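EI: anyone free to look at a 474-residue chain?
SC: sure, send it
EI:
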Amino acid sequence: LLAGGATQTTVTATTNAVTTIVANAVINAGNRADITSVANTVVRTFTEGNTGTSLTELFTNLVNGNFSNIGMPSILASGGAGSGITVNNKAQTILDPNASVNATNQVNITADGDTSVRPADGQEFSAAMTTRGATLANAFAITDVFIDSDALIDIRQGAKVSSLNVNIDADNQISALAAARGNALVDIEGAHGSAFTRLNIGTAGNYSEAKISFATGTDIIGTDSLRIDATNSQKDGNLRSRAQGRGESNLFVGIATARSEGTAYVQSIVESASGSAMRSGDLSVNAESNFGLDRHAETISSTLVTKTLTVIKEVARTVEEKICKWMPWPLDKLCEVVTKTVISLVEVLEDIVVAAASYPSQGGLGVVLNGNGTYKDTINLNGDLYNIGSSDQSLKVNADGSIDATSTIGTTQDANNIYVDDIVSSAKMSMTFSANRGQIIGNAVMRVNKNIENLTVENSPAKPGLRQNQRAGL
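SC: here you go
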């Protein structure tokens, strides 16, 4: 006659992928060098509980001849199901002090963090509880998910990276759905179904982050291009916290309660210390986070029949009275008619539908941003930023005294002389810094290299006088 039960699943998953180039190590690649770490954690759970038997189930089994499942209906049924999930996922790539990585064409240094937490395949919820009773039923389900996922690159003191093209990329991706359903079904009196979900990413003191750090004395050279990207983003749509409470009664009371909570502390950071150096003809630095967090609290409650109550109501009636005063004959036949309204209280029977009650609510902070509505993303550069890679300059005089079309230096000439114009470096600064919803700070010094590495001048006897214009400069 009394039925109760509880079921719970607890999962703790920790993944640490660390790649380290030890102190003073030297890597020289003929074409390309890849230094990478990958941390990938996938959690799929489903916890289900069922308890109690209702009168409806009993009669259905009898009619269908399903005698093996016939049991006494439960007067009171109560049950709970819980799913608790904790994930710590970290991908970290480290160049220890004075380590060196070099390649002719390309160097890629990456850290990739990938975390996915969802209900088991084919299931809507990670925790589901159903209770059935003849008189009272209570069902409670909870799913609690915590994720701390990081992608980190740490270039330590004195480490060096050199190639024609250098890519340094920390990428952190998270996919998460915390879902629970509490379902209570009852025949006669009250059903209360409740569900609670909480999805937390990181904490206020330990953000889930993509982070790239350059210590003092580091020297990063990408002659043609240097790309530095710290990105932190959702995968497969917004993060979701979903709670569904159902309370259904065939008679009087159906109550449903649901609460969904969610908070995400996320950020992307690129930082360099004083005394560090970045050198490239095309430097690009990016720090970007992109997350959305949906909190859905769903409630379904119902009652199927009305309740008959005795109520007292006021009834108004109109009464006419004939008033005759004593008068001598024949005046005694003259009378006055007075109309009065009389209020009385009577008992009546009324059918009243007992309203089902639903209580959905949300909690948590959502995606935590700065006070101005931006992410905590930060580019904090200190040290020196060098723009390098100016093109060579040349002047070639053909045998007939004409200037060769390949020459990049301007001239003027007369019958016997060629006067050389200014010899100007073609170096142009190409540096891009992007933190679209964050901040860019620091005390970095930008240096434009105007050196001409190769200057070639070839003259011809046809023009023996090759002179620099009086106002020309180098």
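EI: Residues 105 and 164 are 5 Å apart (CA to CA).
SC: 👍
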